[in-house]
Write a structure and sequence with these properties.
It is a single chain. Helices cover about 25% and strands about 20% of the residues. It is α+β, with helices and mostly antiparallel strands. The protein is globular, with a radius of gyration of 16 Å. The protein starts with a helix and ends in a 22-residue tail after the last helix. Bound molecules: tetrahydrodeoxyuridine. Tetrahydrodeoxyuridine binds near residues 38, 40, 70, 91 and 99. Tetrahydrodeoxyuridine binds near residues 38, 58, 91, 99 and 105.
């Protein structure tokens, strides 16, 4: 996986990878998808505002609902490394139209700021969307009652 920060590309509105390069990262990740049950391999690449790329693939399971989508795998990897602000997410699969994230992924993607989402397919179709376009009228933290910050570890 190309590490954006070592590729020496110039910054452009907070992003140091072009859309095509981020989609290429997602396509490279897709080769590592574990999808023996559906046969539908998905790759995702999440570009952080700090310029790093975290990739994710769908990881299926013999107990079908246990499997995780590529988008949530990428997000979990990034957050696990301390990243919470994202410039862009690319998702790619061999689908007739661009690969559209499932509802569960759309909800999870609303939790952290992501400026743009690039939906792609292996035939070269690309559609650029915002998280709000993917999930209008989303449920979010603002709907929950205010919680006092009493823990030692800050969760925000
Ligand atoms: N899948 C993803 O990983 N991302 C999507 O955007 C759509 C669906 C996965 C879940 C499952 O492993 C397979 O694709 C078929 O649904």
């Amino acid at each position: 996986m190309p590490r954006a920060s070592v590729r020496g590309l110039s910054w452009k509105e907070g992003s140091i990878l072009t859309d095509d390069e981020l989609i290429a990262c997602a396509a490279a990740a897709r080769a590592r998808a574990y999808a023996p049950y559906s046969g539908f391999a998905v790759g995702a690449a999440l570009l952080t505002e700090s310029g790093r790329v975290y990739e994710g693939v769908n990881v299926e399971n013999a107990s079908y609902p246990v499997g995780i989508c590529a988008e949530r795998a990428a997000l979990a990897a990034a957050v696990s490394h301390g990243e919470r602000r994202f410039a862009a997410l690319a998702v790619i699969a061999d689908s007739p139209d661009v690969c559209a994230p499932c509802g569960m992924c759309r909800q999870m993607l609303m939790e952290f700021p992501i400026r743009r989402i690039l939906l792609a397919n292996t035939a070269g179709a690309v559609r650029v969307m915002t998280p709000a376009e993917l999930l209008p009228c989303a449920f979010g933290a603002a709907a929950l009652p205010a919680k006092e910050e009493s823990d030692e570890i800050s969760h925000r």
